[in-house]
Amino acid sequence: MNSRCGVASFRPLPFTQLCETKHMARADISLHDRVPKNLVQGVFRGIIVLNVILVALLWWPWFGGTAERVGAVDLLLSPFRLGGFRPDCVWLVVSTFFIATSLFVFLFKASSSGTARVNVYLCLIELLAFCSFVYRIVKSGLLDFG
């Protein structure tokens, strides 16, 4: 067994062939190449699914609360406020901003990539969910402009 250049083989290979293997170039691979695109896409799609589930839960009074009663989120996150807002609302606004920004990137790639098309549809679903969230907090009295 030959172990030159960190490559184990059953028969000796020429040095040039050993150093051209992908095992030898492992130290030269950048972080971008090490992180698979599927992981980034999975995290992106996971954030969208999380946001849609959060919006769906916020529609129920026992979870999101009403103008008269506190909900489970209020009880859970009551000590934490970001500029007077609950962290879940801030998370939805900030993540929706980034998802809407990435929607424009995916729109340009949608004609040539099926994955980008799926991401465009997911972004649109998340934007619709966010619009329903804004509608609910304004109509239910949770967000009062004075």
Helical percent range? 55-70%
Number of E-state strands: 0
Order of helices and strands: HHHHHHH
List segments where confidence is low: pLDDT < 50 over at least 5 consecutive residues.
none
Shape: elongated
Structural class assignment: mainly alpha
Mean pLDDT: 76
Number of helices: 7
N- and C-termini, Cα separation = 78 Å
Please summarize the sheet with the most strands. Answer: none
Radius of gyration: 24 Å
Oligomer: single chain
- The number of distinct structural domains comes to 2
Give the percentage of residues in beta strands.
under 5%
Question: What can you see in these coordinates?
Answer:
This protein has 146 residues and is an all-alpha fold. It folds into two domains: 1-34, no CATH class; 35-139. 62% of the residues lie in helices and 0% in strands. It has seven helices and no strands. The chain has helices at 15-19, 31-34, 37-58, 61-64, 72-77, 87-109, 114-139. Helix 3 (37-58) packs across helix 6 and helix 6 runs antiparallel to helix 7 (114-139). The radius of gyration is 24 Å and the shape is elongated.
Keywords:
2 domains; mainly alpha; about 150 residues
Topology:
Layout: H1 15-19, H2 31-34, H3 37-58, H4 61-64, H5 72-77, H6 87-109, H7 114-139
Helix pairs in contact: 3-6, 3-7, 6-7
